[in-house]
TrEMBL record:
Residues 11-77 form the MIP18 family-like domain. It comes from the Bacteria. This is Metal-sulfur cluster biosynthetic enzyme. SUPFAM superfamilies: Fe-S cluster assembly (FSCA) domain-like.
Length: 111
């Protein structure tokens, strides 16, 4: 069973890896867009990415979920995490306030 420290470090690695998943419409990664709300890990390091999308009718949801599985597959191959699943939630609702400063500058969104 992993320690709390190991779980925290694994969550950080997962988040870092998710910065490679680019929202196809906006061209910014899903972490900086503020779409990833939480990384859940169980005792076997099976991973659930709890996230939202910029809109409920996002036509590229399947593409983003597929990219997440592919990107985190690298950590799976290294034995750092177990299975990967994505849970798309609508609460809290995403807003531009959730974006990082980097994403706001890149997209020209004023604070």
């Amino acid at each position: 069973m992993p320690t709390e420290q190991e779980i925290l470090e694994t969550k950080e690695r997962v988040m870092a890896q998710l910065e490679n998943v680019i929202d196809p419409e906006l061209g910014i990664d899903i972490v900086n867009l503020g779409l990833v709300y939480e990384i859940e890990l169980d005792e076997e390091l099976n991973t659930v990415v709890v996230m939202t999308l910029t809109s409920m009718g996002c036509p590229l949801a399947g593409t983003i979920v597929s990219e997440i599985k592919q990107t985190l597959g690298e950590l799976q191959e290294l034995g750092e995490i177990g299975t990967v699943d994505t849970n798309i939630v609508w609460s809290p609702v995403w807003s531009k306030d959730k974006m990082s400063r980097y994403a706001k500058i890149a997209l020209g969104v004023a604070d």
